[in-house]
Amino acid sequence: MGGIPSKEVKSIREVQPGDHIKYHRLGITYAHHAIVVSVNANSYTVIHFDGDKTGGKNIIQETKHSFGAEKFEVLEYPSENRFTREETVAIAFYFLREGFGKYSLFGNNCEHFATTCATGYPCSIQTLRAAIAANVYVTGIPALIAYCKTKKVVSIKKENGRFVITPL
Fold this sequence. Notes:
Elements: E1 6-8, E2 20-25, E3 30-39, E4 44-49, E5 59-64, E6 72-75, H1 85-98, H2 110-119, H3 125-134, H4 141-150, E7 154-159, E8 162-167
Antiparallel strand pairs: 1-6, 2-3, 2-6, 3-4, 4-5, 7-8
Helix pairs in contact: 1-2
């Protein structure tokens, strides 16, 4: 199973607000996903879904002050399959204010958050890969893949110069 192409970021100049990024954890065992919301000369700020680790607030805004301390990749969505970068940032801030629901490793994790911000569709390719590798719920795999492509959960439009975000 392929997934969304990505490229390693080697310079902060390659990072833009609205990028969906992923950090590899434990080597390449799994990845943590986030949305870049601002970029400065030597730092960048992300919004990400961090489970329930921070006293009940599960959507976190965090500034990374040392570019290069953590390697990460930018996911390269085809433009017809994603919101604009500006819309992606607006959706990330919407979830920062409103929350993203209860964390679930297989049903509502950081990758679900980032793909929802970028496309409107919650999907976790690494969760699908783990389910396939574990050979569990094999009959449910096609349903999960279909869910990733068809269950849009948020829409966005611009009215009077402001974004209006609507949960579906």
